[in-house]
Amino acid sequence: MVRPSVDATYAISKSDTFRAFKPTLPNSPLLVTADHKIKIDDAPIMSPGEVLLHVRTTGVFGYSDIRFWKAGRIGELEVLGDCILGHEAAGEVVAVDENVTNATVGG
């Protein structure tokens, strides 16, 4: 069963839109492990010099992400450790480390 990583309230309207609110921690992404298993695990929270992003949507694609899960590589790219699946993410900055100068909360 997939655990949601946000404390969300959904309001489905005629236009099929929804609203999600500030995420709860810890963050729980979909990982592929070095031995090609899928798991949901806690991801590290931001480190110094980083921002915390509430990912609202991301894509998991058959050619790249699923191929990487099954084969451990995409063409010449081989990742030997655990890797979070998905790319082309969109979200909102919810926290900014004090040393970050090029991002703001809400951006």
UniProtKB/TrEMBL annotation:
Keywords: Metal-binding, Oxidoreductase, Zinc
Pfam family, any one: ADH_N
All residue ranges annotated as the Alcohol dehydrogenase-like N-terminal domain in the record: 48-106
Gene3D superfamilies listed in its UniProt record: Medium-chain alcohol dehydrogenases, catalytic domain (3.90.180.10)
Origin: domain of life: Eukaryota
Biological process terms in GO annotation: sorbitol catabolic process
Cofactor: Zn(2+)
Gene Ontology molecular-function annotations: L-iditol 2-dehydrogenase (NAD+) activity; metal ion binding
Family recorded in the similarity comment: Belongs to the zinc-containing alcohol dehydrogenase family.
Protein name: Alcohol dehydrogenase-like N-terminal domain-containing protein
Organism: Lipomyces tetrasporus
